[in-house]
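Continuing the batch. This is chain 6 of the set; chains 1 through 5 are on the previous pages. Same settings as before, nothing changed between runs. Recording input and output for traceability.
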Amino acid sequence: MNRRIREIAYFLSSQNFSNGFRTTLSILLPSLVSDQFGHLDTGMAISLGALAVSLSDAPGPVQHRRNAMLATVVVSVGMTLLTGVARLHPISMTLEIGLLGFFFSMFVIYGNRATSVGTAALLTMILMLDRPLDLMGILRESGLIAAGGLWYTAIGLLSSRLRPYQAARQALGQCIHAVATFMAIKADFYDISTPLDDDYRRLVAQQVVVSEQQDAVREILFKSRQLMAESDNTSRLLVLTFTDVVDLYDQILAMYLDYADMLERFGQTGVLPRFAALIRKLSIELDYIGLSIQASVIRRPPIDISKQLDDLWQHIEALGPEYGSTLVLRKAMVGLRAISQRLSIIQNNISQPAVPTDRADTIEYGRFVSHQVIDWPSFRNNLTRESSAFRHSVRVAVSLVVGYLLTLVLPYGDYSYWVLLTVLVILKPAFSLTKQRNIERITGTLAGAIIGVLILMFVPDKAAQFAFLVLFMLGTYSFLRFNYLVMVVCVTPFLLIVFSFLGTGYLDVAGERFLDTLLGGLLAFGASYLLFPNWESNQIVNTMREMLSANIRYMNLLLDGLSGKSLPVVDYKLVRKEVYVASANLAAAFQRMTSEPKHKQRNETLIYEFVVLNHILSANIATLITGLLTDRPRPYSAEVLKPIKRAAATLTDSQKRLLETQPVESAATRPVAADTVDAPEPTSADLLFMEHLQFIQQVSGDIGKVLSKGNWVDHPATKNPDGP
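Output for chain 6:
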């Protein structure tokens, strides 16, 4: 099975596709059945309720999904009643759009699931603008929307009851797929034909994806009362496999070398392509494991690369003295064997009939997930101009109001609410995300309109058109959460075919939709640029501080191990998770910053170096801590500890350069354990170990040098953060 076929198999067995299929079925069936009895309007109202609730049905624990879906039913009914009355006069409708646009946009402070509930409420409000109803009609519409929402909720909960482990399997499969991709990128570091700078950029970007997928698995596994309470083999296997995959990812990260020096010295020996080939082979094997878990199918027999590893070792041994020390290659071999062994453990766990309970139940998994509290104080505390959520909500409210007023004064068509809909889906808290959504919305609408018009022009058969409608509908809801461009390309022909069935001229609809998209996109872009703009360059310093804090804690943990203390597994994994999250947040913030206008960016090159150096630092700390966890605790001498203490002191000084008011306590300020005073002098093995510690000190120093080159305080954007 080649990579492209695996990608298709991953998609067809993914949660995105299964959710898309369920949403398509839930929305399509009410309209089809009602149309058979001559009540299409009734079916469309029920479908609208199902659509609104589907937006809040994000992957996660069943109890969280249920609460969000029921909350969406309530707010959708409320918005239907309120909008049905308010739309009778432009002033009341303007007030509703402004006030509720702000209120529901503030839900962003409560996390993604609450944000989707707010989006569903605003979507219901916007779609009700096109429904002129009397009082009885408003009540009837509210009841039908409630019925549609409850219909979707029932289907969603029933599917979870029938397949309780499917969501966890799908999330875990996607996580493994992301780690396999990360490993494949690591293989490119051994390829002399790819620039290291490009490799690092792709690696850092993929690290963001891995972090997101790991959080998704934790959300489902560790917050699900059913999964954590079950004592059957399946639930234990899922938890154990995820734990091993995170450990495998840690080993992949820890497999860091001085790639530039390695490529220069050994690039012509032929040994590096063999490393790359073996790493890619292991990544493909890991990809197959993820697919087998996600699709619940029997996987192929595991591969055995011990012969290739032995051959590679002999190749390294055969290198002549003219190449100098081969220590870097030997370290790579050690890392490669460790990854291969971890992969074998995962394979054995999947294939064995039962999971040992002593492995599955020894970690307090609840400590690895965060808990979002929905309360009024959080809302009230964000009602300040300093809050990014407040500024975003103001932008949304103003843009929606302006869009609504424009549709009143401009000579417009029958579907002017598309302007507001475009504003709602495009306008995001970060400028870079709004810019990206804008481009994708306009491009996708144009491409989708062309596709839809061509189908309606050259495929006159109604049955064939309906088949295309279902196909595009399935694509719309399958790509909704992970590929916005493809979703827009699918939704436009889907809507054109629907309006064609309703007897509306599809060419007029296509033209109006494109113009509405342009106007809505212009409003969203203007608001994100001019109205309380949220420039990443003004905030990325906070993310950099968090990265330094996480690495200092990681380094403190290393110091504890070097001092002879036993490292608690849970504490180690919590600190490791903190480093992963901080690193992913920093990489994501840097990506957003580079998408902003050039004159708003500052220290771009220095921040990129900071991102890469912290990645290198984390990887090297992970390498040493992994070794300490497998060895018996023993104290090292003060001489051995000196580089790591200096490195921690350097990072603490770097925090101060970034205006950290309360720097994390560094290893340099902590007393050395008493048992290190009488520790033996360094042995020859310790000297090699010290080289690694000195490299950590060197990288920490490089981080300090990078920060010393930049101006992190005085910048035009910080003087006038709200100006263009």
